[in-house]
């Protein structure tokens, strides 16, 4: 399974009552595929506020995304949690709907050992025929799956990729030793070009909601051998990469991103508690950032 070079971790639009805004969900899917050139969409990932979505909402979103993408982009369902049993259940339900793959986050809060993480992912993989992308994001989960464990998991036939929010060193270790068919994706927008330079295949992006087409151009320039042009585009896009996460302090990506999208005429609404909308100084920073696009 090739999920493409540019994968967008899609926001979940809400209405004024905090319920899913289905008409805007349709619009944002269309926008990400046609205007921002996303090859695949992650539905109900962290940017989609998965921790505050109920299971029935997730399944509705998976089905809705499949219906509206119409095969123009792969649909990757965020089905991982810190419960192996529940992750298996949700992955199997997503598979019944026809999704193209599953994104499985490293178990959070309960801090499993490397062997525990291996068995967690192995059990889920054995329970489904879906292609699986691992998701290693130590800043959110505390636990981190190391390169050696990831390489063990890469030998399981339907574990086909990993989204790495760890170091470039770990991306290098995995990319240099994994089977040729196993893809490494950066999970950090600002590291897209450096990660590809050391062997990553692509990016699972937040910023692609705003600058996906430019990111696609940057990746293609590098693949075409025009390293100088790729570097120039990276430098141009870098303020947006960093600004969405540091505006002017550490603001969770759904909050800043949704505010930016609303400014650009995409009424995706606010965020669910415990997240909150940007304060005035953060909002002013995002307005300047959007004005610079």
Derived structural class: alpha/beta
Name the average pLDDT: 96
Number of strands: 8
Tally of DSSP helical segments: 12
User: Main sheet: which strands, in order across?
Assistant: 1-2-3-4-5-6-7-8
Strand portion = 5-15%
Q: How many strands, what sense, and barrel or not for the largest sheet? A: 8 strands, parallel, barrel
Helix content: 40-55%
Low-pLDDT segments, ≥5 res: none
What can you see in these coordinates?
The chain has 293 residues and is α/β, with parallel strands linked by helices. It has helices spanning 22-35, 55-69, 84-97, 114-126, 138-141, 147-153, 168-177, 192-197, 208-223, 227-243, 253-263, 280-291; strands spanning 6-9, 40-43, 74-78, 101-105, 132-136, 159-164, 183-186, 202-205. The chain has an 8-stranded parallel barrel, surrounded by 5 helices. Strand 3 (74-78), helix 3 (84-97) and strand 4 (101-105) form a beta-alpha-beta unit.
